[in-house]
Amino acid sequence: MRILITNDDGINAPGLEVLAAIAAGLAGERGEVWTVAPAFEQSGVAHSISYTRPMMIAEMGERRFAAEGSPADCVLAALHDVMKDAPPDLVLSGVNRGNNSAENVLYSGTLGGAMEAALQGVPAIALSQYLGPRNRSLADPFETAARFGVDVIRRILSADVPNGMDYGLFYNVNFPPLPAAEVKGMRVARQGARPGTTYGVEPYSSPSGRRFLWIRGTDQHRPAAGGSDATVNLEGYVSITPMRADLTAHDALEALRVIE
């Protein structure tokens, strides 16, 4: 198996090292793992692409490249340049430092990379490690992702879920904020919404008097609706959420037809 890995925390992020090990376990001795990842951190860029400017790409080692762009840019660079003669069988994005459950899905560059792969017709899975008081201070805060990553991906691929729609499937996997020994199992879950959890800004004045704004989030440990991703993560389970790049509010279509 030929696997492409990327992330949004940057090519030197520890989570990408964890993902490289997961990918190597999946690819096997005869497989290949290719890395095309952002040269610098790209957290929060969602599915953005560098449409109005070129991006520099540099070879950092064997099958390892850094691109000055977003995770979606990196996937495009891999599929249409770096790996154009032999495209990957699978794209993995992550392992993100922090959860991409609930509303975080909409901001996540990790999900943006997986989404772009799906739009290009390549199977893709995003992986994120939820952090909290039970695992943040561990010697390896990614130990849960490292322990369960290969098994989760193999189970997803073995399910052989039909993919015959306009927008291809990709998967969002979040590992719970626990040491690996305390994980209870896996749950297929829908995307949730943590009540009252929205982003905002915090003003800041520099010594020179210039005004800046920091983007700030809120409590990531509020549960969402029962059975949804953030809730099952906080209950101790790995969440697996199938997704498509279709933002249509299908439940509102019929009601809106009265205006036609």
From TrEMBL:
Cellular compartments per GO CC: cytoplasm
Domain Survival protein SurE-like phosphatase/nucleotidase positions: 3-194
EC number of the protein: 3.1.3.5
UniProt remark on cofactor binding: Binds 1 divalent metal cation per subunit.
Chief localization: cytoplasm
MF terms (GO), sorted A to Z: 3'-nucleotidase activity; 5'-nucleotidase activity; exopolyphosphatase activity; metal ion binding; nucleotide binding
Key words, A-Z: Cytoplasm, Hydrolase, Metal-binding, Nucleotide-binding
Positions that bind a divalent metal cation: D8, D9, S43, N96
Catalytic activity: a ribonucleoside 5'-phosphate + H2O = a ribonucleoside + phosphate
Family, as annotated: Belongs to the SurE nucleotidase family.
Functional description taken from the UniProt entry: Nucleotidase that shows phosphatase activity on nucleoside 5'-monophosphates.
This protein's name: 5'-nucleotidase SurE
Biological source species: Pontibaca methylaminivorans
Lineage: Bacteria, Pseudomonadati, Pseudomonadota, Alphaproteobacteria, Rhodobacterales
